[in-house]
Every structure is written in structure tokens, then in C-alpha cells.
Amino acid sequence: MRFIGNIEAKIDAKGRAFLPAFFRKVLQASGEETLVLRKDIFQNCLVLYPESVWNERLDLLKSQLHPWKHAHQQLFRQFVSEAEVVTLDGNGRFLISKRLMKIAEIEQEIQFIGMDDTIELWAPECLKQTLKTEEEFGIEFENIMNNCEAL
């Protein structure tokens, strides 16, 4: 399952967004019906996880935590309690809660960014603030790729 692309969309007055058709096709092809939505850990955006990807990430997190350590229990609680299960309606729409929209500063405009096995949801202005200039991107990309031994 691979999501790619940058797609602009709008949210209706009820807080519903249409999942872009390309992303819906990827989900359907992989048999995914349930999605999980939560704020990204590092960025001011939301992340939409297909259920199987969410379960893999949750299992990975749990494998790194000790169930009898207070700090680990708190971290796990916060991670899962901030997540929301979402489903697509018959038209391919899903509801974004007011709480998550406020956290991510999303109003009416939204950008969907395919991030391999997840989809990020951004307020356009927040996304612009995080993107590098073409020159910065090129330099960093070159540095990373030149340091890869596999190439």
C-alpha cells in the first residue's frame, strides 16, 4: 500500500472531507475499510493510518515500552487516547472532529499528502511553513543520497 501525491481539497460545514479518489482506490485494493486519525507526533498535521498500518505501529510502540513503568504507561495512554477511528461513508467522505481540526489549525482548506503507508492532512499555511525551498531540498537530498552505501 503506497500513497503518494499532494491533493488540495475542502472540508464541508459539518467537518467532512472527501478522501481523494486515488487514495480510496489504494485502500480498496488492499481491502482496508477502517482508518485511524491522530495528530502527528512531530508536525502540526494529522495522520490518517489504514487500520493494518496503525496496528503495526501500535505493536512496534508496545514492543519498546515496559508495561510496568509509569512513564511508559503514560506515553502509551496519550498516544492511543488521541487517536480516533474513522470510516468512509458511501461517498468517500469522513468526519474530522472539531478537536483534531483545531489542533492541526485546519479550517476549510486541506491538503492531503501521501506519505507511503499513511496520509497526512495539513492546513495549507502550516504545510508551507514546513517545506524547504527547492535549493535546500536539493542540497539535503544530495547529501543523504551521497551518504547511502547501497547506491
**Strand content range:** 25-35%
List the helices and strands in order: EEHEEHHEEHEEHH
Give me the number of helical elements.
6
- Whole-Å distance between the termini? 24 Å
Mean pLDDT: 93
Give the overall form.
globular
- Side by side, the strands of the main sheet go 1-7-8-4-3-5
Structural class: alpha+beta
**Main sheet specs:** 6 strands, antiparallel
Radius of gyration: 17 Å
Counting DSSP E segments of at least 2 residues, the number of strands comes to 8
Helix coverage percent of residues? 40-55%
Molecular structure report:
The protein is of the alpha+beta class and 151 residues long. A 6-stranded antiparallel beta sheet has the order 1-7-8-4-3-5. The longest helix is centred in the middle third of the chain and has 14 residues, at 51-64. The two termini are 24 Å apart. It is built from 6 helices and 8 strands.
Short description:
With 151 residues, the protein is α+β, with helices and mostly antiparallel strands.
List the helices and strands and how they pair.
Layout: E1 6-10, E2 16-18, H1 21-29, E3 34-39, E4 46-50, H2 51-64, H3 70-81, E5 84-87, E6 93-95, H4 98-103, E7 109-115, E8 118-122, H5 124-130, H6 134-146
Antiparallel strand pairs: 1-7, 2-6, 3-4, 3-5, 4-8, 7-8
